[in-house]
What does this fold into?
Amino acid sequence: MLKPHSILVIAGTDSSGGAGLSRDVAVATELGFAVKPAVTAVTVQSNAAVRRVELIEADLVKAQIAAALEDDAPAAVKIGMLGDGAVVGAVADALQGRDLPIVLDPVIASSSGAQLLSDDGIVAMKERLLPLVTLVTPNLPEAEILGVERLHNSCRAVLLKGGHGEGDVLRDVLMLSQCETVFTAQTQAFTPRGTGCTLSTAIACGLADGLALAAAIRQAHHYVQNWISGLQASD
It folds into this structure.
């Protein structure tokens, strides 16, 4: 049974179904939330490669968000793939001044290595979007591109994901108000596509439920680990 509140998901589609809006909707639905989708891009993907990307015009992205916020306002926002600087700016304009928890998964490249955020999009994200969001969830390569110092200085909170690190223990580090909280899990033998989407959407759902940030992250962390374990058990 769905809860009375929805979440707004601003992201691209993925024709493989492994990531993007498909994954966001699946996670939110399982956690009891309807999704208001604002589509930023249509991608042609398989599990192995990104074959084509068509970005939605920035004014259309902004109009989708405005319509989603008009009535029955969502309880939280999750942002995924944006594509370029114009779309980043449109999203920032649409969310400016909104009193909503906003989780940004800074999608810069696909798992297969295709660039999904242009250079001007990276600049716009640094300047326009990072200061607006409640939490940004970069992996290690994304944090390097965005700049760790800028993340510290610009964002209210950063969850630095350690999935690209080495070793048997995965460490995700929440940096909030000069304090660090570490979330650990055993490194899984199998890492499916869409883990970043899954984690950030689950965090947004926790925030929509009224959880404090650390509690929402802890709940989402467990959710992701259980999801991966379930996929391995079904193979």
Notes: The mean pLDDT is 91. Helices lie at 20-30, 58-70, 85-95, 119-129, 140-146, 148-154, 195-208, 213-234.
